[in-house]
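Changelog-adjacent note: as of this version, every example in the card shows the full chain rather than a window. The one below runs 252 residues end to end.
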Amino acid sequence: MKPYFVTNVLEILDSREYNTWNEKCLYSMQLLLAFDPAFVGCEFGHFNIGEHAIVRLFMRAPVAEDAHGNLRPYSIIKQLAYVPFWSTFWIWFRVMTSEIDFRDALSIVIPAPNGLFLAHLSKEEKAVEIRTFIDDKSATDDRKIVRDLMMRVSEPLLASPLSASPAVEAAHLDYGNAFLTPVVCKKLAPHSDVFSRCLVRKEEHDPHRNTEKLFREQLAVLAATALWDTFQSAPLREFLAQANHLVRQSTR
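Full-length structure tokens:
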């Protein structure tokens, strides 16, 4: 893998249809700087943040102050540290389980240092729509367990292509996320019961469809495809290099 740096940028979109109402939102863009060879790229990111979520973030997360007691609004950005990673994971999970459409059933959780975001998979674009933010005190026990689990799982991988998609894929034809997504599923699979309870909404309209079971099954199927031994034995960059090599060999 060639060295690169990706920064996720939020831009304001004046209005967008958001379920049955309209609200302003921030959409994400990724600026990629590659140094060997020199390259600059910009791509739309995999998440949008609604105005309601931003308001709740400032209400419920700690906002730092300067030496004079003035609020530092940009200090809130640290709450978004895990958003690019998990947004990409959910997009890839959706792609890799395309035979089952989970978009109406999943209420996605994305962890934050002082709480968690709730979101849904968009039906209009390849993105996660972040709807609101709740703090630790307001979260249910299941959501707290899942939030802590997701932070532990993703912490060692925050510098991976899962945090830099789709910019890295577009610029370098990097296929690492096709292998990292099953690895993450492998890490989550032992906790699939609490994970599915937390994410799957109650099915009032179709009580006979067991979405929790389907979700656990799909998580297990993806976990079984993970190159787990290679992932555990090799540094991340080496694992990704091997994964890309396998893909290029198979397409010859």
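Structural remarks: The CA atoms of residues 4 and 96 lie 26 Å apart.
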